[in-house]
Design goal:
This protein is mostly helical and 150 residues long. It contains eight helices and no strands. Helix content is 70%, strand content 0%.
């Protein structure tokens, strides 16, 4: 991808990433999804990005599920759907992705698309924190303070 010893050809790189993803290299599926979803190095193709993330998620790679949740939460290329976002964040969280847990907590604590639920926010932010998310730890402290001051 970075043209070390050869001419840079991002389209060819994306093609090779896609082939590796199709071959089951799940880390590469995430990279492929990011390239297409966020138009990094190549022209955006949101359907291809979603397909790559889905391949990872469907194969049990939790980060792919979290990225799909992001797509539904952002709503910049697909309609905003917080229920679908939660569904995919939950798959990510259950698969061990700390950010998936933290994003669930953020949705419940921000009253976005679902009723505010501090208890659920606490549960999922704590899970995210315990899995290594600094944001999860910070959010847990904020929500705990909020709960204690009610």
């Amino acid at each position: 991808m970075y043209g070390q010893g050869v001419d840079k050809d991002y389209e060819k790189g994306a093609e090779l990433f896609s082939k590796a993803c199709d071959g089951g290299v799940l880390d590469v599926c995430i990279g492929t999804g990011v390239m297409y979803d966020r138009a990094e190095f190549i022209e955006a193709d949101y359907e291809k990005g979603m397909l790559a993330y889905s391949k990872a998620c469907d194969s049990g790679y939790a980060l792919g599920c979290t990225y799909i949740g992001d797509i539904y939460k952002r709503g910049d290329h697909f309609p905003i759907d917080y229920i679908k976002a939660l569904e995919f964040y939950e798959k990510g969280c259950n698969g061990g992705d700390a950010q998936g847990c933290t994003y669930i907590a953020l949705i419940y604590s921000n009253n976005k698309g679902v009723p505010m639920d501090i208890e659920k926010g606490l549960i999922f932010s704590k899970d995210g924190c315990e899995m290594g998310s600094d944001t999860g730890c910070d959010l847990y402290k904020v929500l705990l303070d909020q709960k204690n001051n009610e």
